[in-house]
Design goal:
Blueprint (H helix, E strand, L loop, with lengths): L18 H17 L8 H11 L3 E2 L5 H8 L10 E6 L7 E5 L13 E6 L1 E3 L4 E3 L5 H19 L3 H13 L1 H33 L5 H10 L3 H20 L1
Parallel strand pairs: 1-2, 2-4
Antiparallel strand pairs: 3-4, 5-6
């Protein structure tokens, strides 16, 4: 999410009723079952390899280092890009937000720096918990989405980013486009199962405010659309191998 400047159905059902949605739901569950990776199983040696490969020019809190480095491993284009991952006590209406550091927009593009602000606590209707306590694949997916924003920023000139920020503030249509671009960039880089896990975690969480769920449904790609994107990408890869 980007902010500038900061059944139990009956056992029986009609063969034609909701058939497609039922099939898609089962497909999604199987997809997550077989594709989800638990980063808690990373050995110290594996974590060190990720640090050496993707930790350059990055400031990462220790509590989420394995999640961040795992997400960064899907973005080789950002290997040398300066990014600070910052915990914040409160981010209005967001869990995370990716931004260029404004002062770096005053110089050359090659010197541009970014930050990803992360709410220190995951707030529910009646309680809260440290953000690193959410499931690993969900955290990786959330960070992967924010990295999608940064990859999108990298394709723009400084003046284009200023214009981007203005449009993001004043145009809900533009916000929806920007968020879907970030999701799509993450999916294209192989993060589809993580992005699906994040969306499902939000939409299916009983203790998250309904207003936040509605916002996610309105502005972001749905889990079903993401699964379809992943399927198409796999078909394209297989077709390329055959050729």
């Amino acid at each position: 999410m980007n902010v500038w400047y900061n059944g139990n159905t009956g056992v029986q059902f009609a063969a034609t009723e909701n058939y497609n949605s039922i099939v898609m739901g089962l497909t999604l569950k199987l997809f997550l079952l077989f594709m989800t990776t638990n980063t808690a199983l990373l050995s110290n040696g594996q974590l060190e390899k990720l640090r050496l490969a993707f930790g350059n020019n990055k400031h990462i809190p220790a509590e989420i280092e394995r999640h961040v480095l795992t997400a960064l491993s899907f973005y080789p284009e950002l290997k040398e890009t300066p990014i600070n991952f910052n915990f914040k006590v409160h981010i209005k209406s967001s869990i995370m937000q990716a931004q260029p550091i404004f002062s770096s927009l005053l110089g050359r593009k090659k010197n541009r720096r970014y930050q990803i602000n992360i709410n220190r606590y995951f707030k529910l209707i009646k309680t809260q918990m440290p953000i690193e306590k959410i499931p690993d694949e969900v955290m990786i997916g959330w960070i992967g989405h924010e990295l999608g924003h940064i990859l999108d920023y990298e394709s723009k000139r400084n003046n284009e980013l200023v214009s981007f920020g203005y449009k993001y503030v004043v145009s809900p249509t533009f916000v929806k486009h920007a968020e879907m671009v970030a999701d799509s960039l993450a999916v294209e880089r192989g993060m589809g199962h993580y992005i699906v896990a994040t969306k499902r975690f939000i939409l299916d969480h009983a203790d998250l405010p309904q207003a936040y769920k509605d916002k996610i449904s309105r502005l972001y790609l749905s889990p079903d659309v993401i699964v379809e994107q992943v399927k198409k990408l796999e078909e394209q890869r297989l077709a390329t191998k055959v050729e």
